[in-house]
Specification:
Distance between the termini: 29 Å
Radius of gyration: 21 Å
Strand content: 15-25%
Strand order of the largest sheet: 4-10-9-8-7-5-6
Order of helices and strands: HEEEHHHEHEHEHEHEEEHHHEEHEEEH
Low-confidence stretches: none
Shape: globular
Length: 427
Amino acid sequence: MSDLYARHKAVLPDWLALYYKDPLEITHGEGRHVWGDDGRRYLDFFGGILTTMTAHALPEVTKAVTEQAGRILHSSTLYLNRPMVELAERIAQLSGIPDARVFFTTSGTEANDTALLLATTYRGSNQILAMRNSYHGRSFSAVGITGNRGWSPTSLSPLQTLYVHGGVRTRGPFAHLSDADFISACVADLKDLLGHTRLPAALIAEPIQGVGGFTSPPDGLYAAFREVLDEHGILWIADEVQTGWGRTGDNFWGWQAHGRSGPPDILTFAKGIGNGMSIGGVVARADIMNCLDANSISTFGGTQITMAAGLANLSYLIEHDLQGNARRVGGLLIERLRAVAAQLPVVREVRGRGLMIGVELVRPGTDEAHPDAAAAVLEAARAEGLLIGKGGGHNTSVLRIAPPLTLTVAEAEEGAAILERALRSVQ
């Protein structure tokens, strides 16, 4: 056991999990690579849990942070803040929500917590619809609506949560149906559920479930849900903490794959926008955002140094068409991994969109999750210089692949080759 690992165990919670039997300290990074305390260079296919969105040590972001630090780091939301206003203007315009207002937080958890506060206040209801296999953060209210047992340490909640079918396409009672019939069955389930309860405040849903293993419904499911919700005045909250900013390639926001019935009422974001700086936030129509009748500020949300990073990072992403790169390189990577998976009984499915890819592992010849194999592949990939993540609602047996959006074709091929060898090693 390393000295740092021993110190970690002595002062931090037991439930603060670390990857790998021999945990890794990352000392620095550049581009799509990081270096460990072992002196080795690793190709990073997880980006600090989808947070280092553009690149490690991106010069444009580093310069913006350094220059802002030389002026002022922080003043709170009690004072006018030019970088916060400028970033809010850009996000409001990009959100697709009419008459949008933006509130900044420091994390996706806090963003979702704020969205729940707004929705329940606006609607006068503490009932929430959420998706099975979902994850929305680690605050008391976010845990209460999380539909993933592995990330829900308590059943206590300030909210009454009702779970809806549809977030997982290839498991569950509707998995055998065609896409169109799957959507129809999920809509019928939603209608039936609403016939047995008081009207909820909102449905909260990740367009692609992150911690749940990068699962998603067929395109159009949430548009069909929205038609039902609108009949009852129920709000739609799109949790874009992992799907936002072009990561899915096809769209800038995950909700746009379900946009036939219009944008969400509330959108939450975080992770990639700060490229490692702590930024989260909520976008909502003005009437919803302004519904609170008591004071509410954010000490660290919108602080100048994080806003400077967000502005520089967003500008780089758009100017260099990283959404397009995610679509092109991600498409190549998914097809490469599917070709490998076709030869390996341990792989149940390769799924995803853009640079948000899940590889689900099972015990060969069964449909049973295989968390031991996932852990072994993680170790084998690291041994060859590749860092990936894992997750999934069925015993953490999904490999999660989400590199920075500047990933090159050569790096995608290198990572795929390492991952192929790692997968073959657990057969």
